[in-house]
Amino acid sequence: MASSFVSLNGIRFHYLTWNQGMGGRPVILLHGLASNARIWDLVAPHLLQDGLVPIALDQRGHGLSDGPDGDYGFEPFTGDLAAFLELFQLEKPLLVGHSWGASVVLDFAAHVRSGAYSPSGLVLVDGGLTQLNDLPGATWESVSERLEPPRLAGTPLSEFRERLEQNRGDWKLSREAIDIILANFELRADGTISPHLTFEHHMQIVRAMWEFQTYERLSQLACPVMAVPARPKNPRGPAAEFLALKERGVKHALKVRPDLRLEWMEDSIHDIPLQHPETLANLILDFSALL
To answer: DSSP letters of 68-107?
Structure first.
């Protein structure tokens, strides 16, 4: 794996590459909200076959990429993706997005339907299937309160690491997964952490997600699409509510995209790339072989 930086749209971006310098179909991997490119660390090595070239980008405001003030709606993020593809001449890429990143690649594909940089296919990993305004009784006020991030700035690293090391039901984070999650934060000299994505930018993205018309975007696609939603084991409370939202989203998606390839990831948390990296990679490989 190689770690590199590039300037796009006046911003310095960080990205990771595997199989660097070798020809083949580019697979662009986009992380979710408040995450970072390293969430693909466990998936990408399994993609190094069948001529695939995995590349993971830290989106603006995330990871080691710059986070300037300004618009944090969908347009700047799809513009960054377009600039990245064009700079490196990554033609007909397979776009893979996790969570909010799935909505970013969905929005990009709905607007870039033809041409050299239009995607050969989309993989939506536990994202890109739902609309937040489809939650029963949802209002912007209730959704923004629910999706407001915890105020972690100033938390001692040792305390936060201890939280991550605790068992999560049937699954415990590996040491590698913990390091990936810690890459979401600046590690301060005083031994505390601070999220790379600021609270203000985080909430701007949440607002854009609230307004995003997922079902309309799905109907505008010109490329094949595979969805890999997570189904947690014995969901309760908010987890059960969001699972019901996903199930409604799947029904809508199948109406507008009868050719949608659907692969439920059973007994899985939201962060499929950390819990089931090899299974996810195999699904991506199988889908890529059909394109």
So the answer is: -SS--SHHHHHHHHHHHHHHTT--SPEEEEETHHHHHHHH
